[in-house]
């Protein structure tokens, strides 16, 4: 049986090439390079040795890079102890064969620059199959400043200290750091159990932990990532940071899996830049423990995916599954106003209980706050949530910025509110449309007195939203709603300065679809594609002497609050063929705008048409037309009249349009049909 050493293997491969054996390169169509078992022509074996010291292997690695002059260096299988490596202005092209493992030299066990392992400055770096076990010795593994960085099939474990105390010189714990790099490609990364030494202070370096920290680079591509475990005060698996006045860093994350525990502050944190996130999966790992039996939230967990800070840019999350059960917030834009977040076709899952714990940040006071599936701060602009599923949470969606859109989402069984929009700050434009809300748990959405609240917006567009009770099947196929105790208001508008419209919103019987209250929001209703006016077809006549109401139509409050809003009301009726005197009066609000004597001695038919137009809040103009003929309708009108004028009826209350009749005998004048309809192509909800 032949025995080969790795040196003999390299020699044999070289001999084969000399004898005319052509080394096989990776297929041209391969998606990315992968480890090979043999060296190809032009490759050189690393001079590092498993038996050498860390300092010797560090020197060998740097010498190999200098000697290779861009050719690929191959590290054979084995465990290599390596000291601190610093390379400037070189092409680093290294392939680590399967079975190779790098471990840090004990000299790297230090806080600050002495704890950095690999440093590449202005290098064009390509690493294939890098596997490291940090043994909780160094603060960081690989750092590139300037140049380019491409890493394929990387594995890192146990970076950061378990014993040293973090202080002001700490760099933080990092797996891969890229700063001012022109192009970053990370394809295939697995990292776990990174730790940051806590010092009781957030947003400093001591407790900062990132598997990937990318700072003010340019083009970034990250795919096929799995990160898990670890601890720290700022333990974010991924942190993208661009603090330039105009952030230009941009890129994508695809097929990433983040398995968090109760020490994972965020799975992904973005500050500046433009990012596309696709096929992102976040979920609690087996080491996740809620902070107590009273909550689902972990000790350190804050926002699962977060656009933080006031740097400009956009994060777009699509086609993803975010199980944020252990977090206070699932997906968030926490500061603004320059950035925005767009989420589409994504499922966000959370617990329905509050985040009850000691605040992890100073002064660490007890907190009891609602969890949120999606949150946008008051300074946010142009954030959108489209075609998503939001399951659970205390408040499913909170949008406090302006020019926001929440469209076509499914909200499943929130505990307290399915939507909250706006704040005490005046905001412009909110579209809330096409959302379906399912309520299941008895008592859900009953504590707040409403299922959704909207404050202080101008230009609201609220339409086609539906509240549905989840039903269960009882014996004999009887359907019973599981939650009948939710609030009796589906969408509640609270601020008197609010303007816009609401239409075609639906709720179960006994639940008001939209309550406009004292706002300036016009309330309309569409029924499919057919306009639904207010129609009265019951005959109503006068009663002996005196002035009696015939048909009465009430225009809901605020529907004539906006200039140009208009309604047309038509009343028709008949008169008895007797000699009694008969008087018909037309009223708009508190004003009688037309009084006409009808013709005695005929069987008359009459029609009144009122057009009422708002010119400003509380001010209207009107036109009233009245015509009477005999019932045959063949003769000339016996009575005709037109009246025009201006009114100052309050538009924050109902405006009643009606006819009254004064006659001698009962049913001398009878109203038969009344129709009120909007003149804007949308119809009021008449009540």
TrEMBL record:
Gene3D superfamilies per the record?
Single-stranded right-handed beta-helix, Pectin lyase-like (2.160.20.10)
Q: Where is the signal peptide?
A: 1-30
**Cross-referenced SUPFAM superfamilies, in alphabetical order?**
Pectin lyase-like
Under InterPro entries, the record lists: Pectin_lyas_fold (IPR012334), Pectin_lyase_fold/virulence (IPR011050), TAT_signal (IPR006311)
Question: Would the keyword Heme turn up in this protein's UniProt record?
Answer: no
> What keywords is this UniProt entry annotated with?
Signal
Q: Which PROSITE patterns would you find in this protein's record?
A: TAT
Protein name in the entry:
Right handed beta helix domain-containing protein
**Organism taxonomic ancestry:** Bacteria, Bacillati, Actinomycetota, Actinomycetes, Jiangellales
């Amino acid at each position: 049986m032949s025995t080969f050493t790795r040196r003999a293997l390299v020699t044999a491969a070289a001999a084969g090439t000399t004898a005319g054996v052509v080394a096989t390169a990776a297929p041209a169509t391969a998606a990315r390079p992968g480890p090979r078992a043999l060296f190809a022509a032009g490759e050189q074996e690393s001079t590092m040795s498993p038996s050498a010291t860390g300092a010797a292997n560090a020197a060998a690695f740097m010498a190999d890079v200098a000697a290779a002059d861009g050719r690929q260096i191959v590290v054979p299988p084995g465990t290599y102890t390596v000291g601190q490596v610093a390379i400037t202005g070189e092409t680093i092209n290294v392939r680590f064969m399967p079975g190779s493992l790098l471990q840090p030299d004990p000299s790297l066990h230090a806080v600050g620059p002495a704890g950095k392992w690999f440093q590449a400055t202005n290098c064009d770096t390509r690493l294939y199959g890098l596997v490291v076990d940090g043994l909780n010795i160094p603060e960081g593994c690989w750092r590139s400043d300037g140049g380019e960085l491409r890493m394929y099939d990387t594995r890192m474990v146990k970076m950061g200290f378990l014993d040293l105390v973090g202080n002001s010189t700490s760099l933080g714990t990092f797996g891969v750091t890229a700063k001012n790099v022109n192009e970053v490609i990370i394809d295939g990364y697995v990292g776990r159990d990174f730790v940051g030494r806590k010092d009781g202070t957030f947003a400093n370096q001591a407790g900062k932990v990132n598997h990937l920290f990318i700072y003010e680079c340019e083009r970034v591509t990250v795919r096929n990532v799995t990160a898990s475990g670890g601890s720290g005060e700022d333990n974010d698996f991924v942190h993208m940071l661009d603090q330039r006045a105009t952030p230009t860093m941009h890129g994508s994350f695809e097929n990433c899996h983040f398995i968090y525990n109760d020490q994972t502050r965020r799975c992904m944190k973005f500050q500046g830049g433009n990012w596309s996130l696709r096929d992102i999966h976040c979920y609690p790992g087996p080491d996740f423990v809620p902070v107590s039996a009273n909550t689902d939230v972990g000790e350190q967990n804050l926002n699962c995916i977060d656009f933080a800070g006031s740097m400009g840019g956009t994060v777009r999350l699509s086609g993803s599954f975010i199980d944020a059960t252990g977090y206070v917030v699932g997906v968030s834009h926490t500061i603004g106003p320059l950035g925005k977040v767009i989420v589409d076709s994504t499922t966000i899952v959370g617990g329905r209980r509050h985040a009850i714990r000691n605040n992890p940040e100073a002064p660490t006071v007890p907190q009891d706050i609602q969890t949120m599936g999606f949150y946008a701060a008051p300074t946010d602009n142009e954030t959108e949530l489209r075609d998503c599923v939001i399951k659970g949470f205390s408040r499913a969606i909170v949008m406090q910025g302006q020019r926001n859109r929440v469209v076509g989402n499914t909200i499943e069984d929130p505990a307290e509110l399915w939507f909250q929009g706006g704040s005490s700050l005046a905001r412009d434009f909110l579209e809330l449309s096409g959302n379906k809300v399912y309520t299941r748990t008895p008592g859900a959405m009953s504590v707040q007195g409403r299922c959704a609240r909207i404050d202080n917006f101008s230009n609201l567009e609220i339409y086609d939203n539906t509240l549905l009770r989840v039903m269960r099947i009882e014996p004999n196929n009887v359907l019973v709603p599981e939650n009948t105790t939710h609030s009796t208001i589906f969408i509640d508008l609270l601020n008197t300065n609010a303007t816009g419209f609401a239409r075609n919103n639906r709720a179960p019987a006994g639940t008001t679809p939209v309550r406009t209250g004292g706002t300036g929001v016009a309330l309309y209703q569409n029924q499919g594609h057919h306009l639904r006016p207010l129609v009265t077809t019951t005959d109503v006549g006068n009663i002996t002497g005196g002035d009696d109401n015939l048909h009465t139509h009430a225009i809901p409050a605020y529907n004539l609050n906006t200039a140009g809003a208009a309604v047309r009301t038509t009343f028709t009726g008949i008169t008895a063929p007797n000699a009694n005197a008969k008087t018909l009066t037309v009223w708009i609000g508190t004003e009688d705008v037309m009084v006409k004597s009808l013709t005695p001695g005929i069987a008359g038919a009459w029609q009144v048409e009122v057009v009422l137009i708002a010119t400003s809040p509380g001010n209207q103009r009107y036109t009233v037309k009245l015509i009477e003929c005999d019932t045959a309708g063949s003769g000339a009108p016996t009575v005709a009249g037109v009246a025009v004028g201006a009114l100052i009826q309050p538009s924050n209350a109902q405006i009643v349009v009606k006819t009254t009749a004064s006659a001698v005998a009962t049913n001398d004048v009878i109203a038969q049909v009344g129709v009120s309809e909007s003149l804007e192509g949308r119809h009021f909800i008449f009540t």
